[in-house]
């Protein structure tokens, strides 16, 4: 009977294509919007993600996320270093500074100051240059997207000069770092150099980056730092989720993306439901004939579910392929879209959502099939 069900489905090509289109459209919309949403949330904690050697972030108690900073006194670094369980602790600066090229291109850049000796917090992957290049006088490194903003359309090259707050800087490296939430250049330099570029008062240390002694739980060490110093100390994962949570609670991003995803689900149910109902209405006499020759409702139900499963699988495959193509090729067309991808968790979740959509849409016309009178075959 599955063969009969498929012949009925493929025989009505217009409605078959309409069903596949409806499922594919819903899949593309839900998958693409979910992927972009997750990518944006990951971007909010890009600096935390790149500081892979850091176990613990120490900051003022009032700090709610990575982009709101209340500077710490320099003495706090020594206090953190003296806490039991801390292997090492280094200063970290984060601020904003206007950056201008000799050609007149102006951008407001994120300035990151790394410990002069260890450069903790520097992304691991250089596209051009190396970490040791930052030890040179006036040396800075920038991310690839920042280079594209400052020198649009030009090839990657080190040795260019920048003006940062009326001070000269030399691009010594180009980093393949995580994309920031806001499309602006990210400039990396030594901590002492960053303080010269941005003179923001007496207390200028943004964070203390710490590493727990081997074998010690970073969460326990963070609690010890907090109890000993009165500062806020969070593990890398906790600080990342705290930052993401701030954006989820205080911006309209979840509502906007949630609305579009909900529309995709509703459109999928409406288009697939109506088209499937029309398909069943056009083939009601065939279902009645099958019941007339002895098929029970259970067999009819399996036939209808087979048709729905085929439509759902093909539509989901096409939609997921189109969404994957978007995430694969859009960063190549626009470097500012780097960092958006399609995690397997989204694909799996969308597969479940599409299955629910197809089942709900199938239920619209299923009652007509189960209640059809076989006698209509013999009526004029």
Morphology: elongated
Indicate how many domains the architecture comprises.
2
Largest sheet: 6 strands, mixed, barrel
Order of helices and strands: HHHEHEEEEHEEEHEHEHHHHH
What is the terminal-to-terminal distance? 26 Å
Rg over alpha carbons? 29 Å
* Proportion of residues in extended strands: 15-25%
User: What integer is the average pLDDT?
Assistant: 87
Low-confidence sequence ranges: none
Structure classification: alpha+beta
Count of runs of 4 or more consecutive helical residues: 12
Quaternary form: single chain
What's the β-strand tally?
10
Spatial order of the strands in the main sheet? 2-3-8-5-7-6
Percent of residues in helical segments?
A: 40-55%
What does this entry look like structurally?
The model has no long low-confidence stretch (mean pLDDT 87). The protein has two domains: 2-44 and 252-378, no CATH class; 73-230, no CATH class. With 380 residues, the protein is an alpha+beta fold. It is 52% helix and 17% strand. It has a six-stranded mixed β-barrel with strand order 2-3-8-5-7-6. The longest helix is centred in the C-terminal third of the chain and has 37 residues, at 297-333. It is elongated, with a radius of gyration of 29 Å. It has helices spanning 2-11, 13-43, 46-50, 75-81, 144-150, 191-197, 218-229, 236-250, 253-282, 284-292, 297-333, 344-371; strands spanning 56-59, 86-100, 106-114, 126-128, 139-143, 161-164, 167-175, 186-190, 207-212, 232-235. The chain has twelve helices and ten strands.
């Amino acid at each position: 009977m599955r063969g009969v069900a498929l012949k009925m489905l493929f025989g009505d090509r217009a409605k078959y294509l309409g069903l596949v289109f409806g499922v594919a459209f819903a899949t593309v919309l839900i998958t693409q919007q979910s992927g972009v949403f997750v990518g944006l949330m990951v971007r909010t904690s890009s600096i935390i993600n790149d500081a892979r050697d850091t176990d613990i972030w120490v900051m003022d108690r009032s700090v709610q996320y990575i982009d709101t900073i209340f500077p710490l006194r320099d003495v706090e670094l020594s206090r953190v270093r003296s806490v039991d369980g801390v292997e090492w602790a280094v200063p970290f600066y984060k601020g904003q500074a206007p950056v201008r090229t000799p050609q007149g291109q102006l951008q407001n850049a994120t300035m990151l100051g790394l410990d002069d000796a260890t450069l903790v917090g520097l992304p691991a992957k250089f596209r051009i240059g190396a970490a040791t290049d930052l030890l040179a006088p006036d040396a800075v490194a920038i991310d690839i997207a920042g280079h594209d903003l400052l020198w649009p359309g030009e090839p990657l090259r080190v040795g260019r000069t920048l003006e940062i707050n009326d001070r000269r800087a030399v691009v010594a490296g180009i980093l393949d770092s995580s994309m920031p939430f806001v499309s602006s250049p990210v400039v990396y330099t030594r901590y002492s150099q960053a303080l010269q570029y941005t003179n923001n008062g007496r207390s200028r240390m943004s964070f203390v980056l710490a590493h727990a002694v081997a074998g010690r739980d970073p969460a326990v060490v963070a609690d010890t730092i907090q109890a000993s110093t009165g500062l806020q100390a969070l593990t890398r994962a906790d600080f990342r989720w705290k930052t993401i949570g701030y954006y989820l609670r205080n911006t309209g991003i979840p509502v906007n993306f949630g609305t579009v995803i909900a529309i995709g689900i509703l459109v999928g149910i409406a288009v697939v439901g109506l088209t499937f109902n029309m398909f069943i209405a056009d083939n009601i006499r065939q279902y009645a004939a099958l019941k007339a020759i002895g098929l029970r409702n259970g067999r009819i139900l399996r036939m209808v579910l087979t048709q729905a499963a085929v439509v759902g699988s093909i539509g989901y495959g096409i939609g997921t392929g189109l969404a994957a193509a978007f995430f694969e090729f859009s960063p190549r067309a626009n470097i500012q879209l780097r960092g958006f991808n399609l995690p397997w968790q989204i694909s799996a979740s969308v597969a479940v959502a599409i299955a629910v959509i197809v089942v709900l849409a199938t239920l619209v016309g299923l009652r007509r099939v189960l209640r059809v009178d076989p006698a209509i075959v013999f009526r004029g």
